[in-house]
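Ticket #4471: structure output looks truncated?

Reporter: J.K.
Steps to reproduce: submitted the chain below (299 residues) through the standard prediction queue, then opened the result file.
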Amino acid sequence: MKASNHSPMDPLIEGYLSYLDKVGRKTPRTIIDVRCTLRGAVSELRPDIPLWHLKLEDYLHWLEAKRRAGCTETSLAKYLSHLRGFLNYAWRSGRNERNVLDGFTLKHALPRTAPSSLTLDEAEKLVRATSATGPTARRDRLVVLLLYGCGLRTDELCGLDVAEINRERHELVVLRAKGDRPRSIPIPEALYTELLAYLLEHGKRGPLFRTSTKHRRLGASDVCTIVKDTVIRAGLRRDITPRTLRHSFATHLMDRGVDLAVIASLMGHRSPQETGVYLHVLPGRTEAAVRTLPIGDLP
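Returned output as attached by the reporter:
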């Protein structure tokens, strides 16, 4: 039987997780994330040898296997950070002579590819396709519009509670954000009006979006199905996903000249550099910006 993610591991690992909680003051979400990384490393690296006794080559082979299996550079960097932190704890505890991952960073040899996004015409078709009928029509429409109109991640949308809608400022307060970086996102006025109408029908507390049968919190698979059905009604390409809508939010804002730092804040990125990938989908933007400099007027 597969072990539960919460079943105890080696005492040293459990001590590290407790350290992150009591001393590091990390959030429960972060501790769960670290636990998942360490549990995966224990089972996938060399189960007969403790993590703190493995060589750098062991970790390199493991990371390369994860990369070939389709793991993104961002996820690899996260795993590396979690493991480096634990090995540093093991070193301070006297379990090893050194942290073999100390100073080691991923070399991003692969070129950054532009994220898939909708054209404005496709976005308009998708929005029109949300005007369907049925018992869940309003909910499904809001799901699609919030993904595109507020740039939410799927997990962030699923985690929204009614209480996280700031009615004074017309904002969404995203508390369950990636990397434990809560943020507030302005809600477009037309969308806010529809959201208020939805709330009149669905109560004042608990999850913002629920399933129609068991009335549980909407899950990622439910959101994917809603987006897929809307895409089909709109007659658009079938590879459009909830993530495509988030990328479209950033791309269309950038196309309208919104500052990169503002987009980074709305997206919940750690820095504008992380948002810079969207420059790839705007060919000519950087060249056009440079051409505005008065170099031609120099004597």
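Triage note (M.O.): checked the attachment and the full token line is present. The beta strands are 165-166, 171-174, 183-186.
Status: closed, working as intended.
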